[in-house]
Prior knowledge:
Layout: H1 7-10, E1 33-35, H2 37-43, E2 46-51, H3 61-74, E3 79-83, H4 87-99, E4 102-108, H5 114-122, E5 126-130, H6 134-147, E6 151-152, H7 158-164, H8 166-175, E7 181-185, H9 190-204, E8 213-219, H10 224-227, H11 249-259, E9 262-266, H12 268-282, H13 288-302, E10 311-316, H14 345-352
Parallel strand pairs: 2-10, 3-4, 3-6, 4-5, 7-8, 7-10, 8-9
Antiparallel strand pairs: 1-2
Helix pairs in contact: 3-4, 3-7, 4-5, 7-9, 8-9, 9-11, 12-13
The chain binds ligand F0G.
InterPro entries: Ser/Thr_Dehydratase, Ser/Thr_deHydtase_PyrdxlP-BS, Thr_synthase-like, Thr_Synthase_bac/arc, TrpB-like_PALP, TrpB-like_PALP_sf
Binding site for pyridoxal 5'-phosphate: 87, 187-191, 317
Cofactor: pyridoxal 5'-phosphate
Amino acid sequence: AHQWRGVLREYADRLDISDATPIITLGEGGTPLLPAPALSARTGATVWVKYEGMNPTGSFKDRGMTMAVSKAVEHGAKAIICASTGNTSASAAAYAAHAGITAAVLVPEGKIALGKLSQAIAHNAELLQVQGNFDDCLEIARDLAANYPVHLVNSVNNDRIEGQKTAAFEVVEVLGDAPDIHIVPVGNAGNYTAYFRGYSEELARGETTKLPRMFGFQAAGSAPIVLGHVVKNPDTIASAIRIGNPASWELALGAREASNGYFGAISDEHILEAYRILSAEVGIFVEPASAISVAGLLERAAAGQIPRGSTVVLTVTGHGLKDPQWALRTADGSDIKPTVVANDTDEVAGVLGLSKVT
Ligand code: F0G
């Protein structure tokens, strides 16, 4: 029986790997591209969702990490290092564990979701909580990689972007062409850059007729690219994209230019509204940062910027189980407490409002 072999083996001919490259894989990639009828109905476009929460550690980071860790091991690295808002650390820790090397991860103290923290610890990372934000963590990680025997696996490492571009290949394989618009959440803008690269390669290979317009969304309290300046104290409930000085800022501006793209900012309130719509109406559970793709789509549609009948792909980047607390809260911020009932069928039927079939 056929099993998906991970992005390095599936796309070996389109990545810089050779027989000398050890393939460190957990079976990443090959994620579902799902139609989202509820979002199509709301917008008049044909909307698809690329569900990256289905990767082995629950986020798109695994695509880049298989490449970065495989190349690190090829070059003899015994330890990798990264700064992270959570998902990169979970992924780095898992791939390092699989490769039998050490992962050191720097995260902003108290600011990463419990699921992600648990993953990094479970996979035996050397996890340090830095008394600073993500941007501070990245600066330290870069310093360490420049001066100590540790291999940097943040997306400033081009191997990460190379691995992540494979998601665009998968979209093209399913749709038979590029979509008209592709929407992603933006933190460091590495993934925005990676999709643009993947689609550009598909166009050059003659697999598509066009580039999609690349739309990226940042949380309003952490929107340096939209504002055009570094944000010193970025803030948002979407902790994954709480970043004030994106590492791939320049590359992303180039990609926006070349694709006639767009960067927008979304309030936390609208992120959580989109989070509820995606889980309740489409059946896809994501973490808040991922829901910003949906929020961005709805915002652009309301602004009349999504042509009717166009094909739109939304990447949702991380699984809802990583940071589930937001599901247990209503829009006005009160806790949701599931009803308790007696151990009795009639009472359960009554509470459910069911009347007996006669
Ligand atoms: N969505 C999720 C769930 C993320 O974890 C990230 C980034 C992004 C979107 C943004 O991607 O940085 O390529 O623009 N998380 C990084 C981390 C920063 O450390 O896990 P980007």
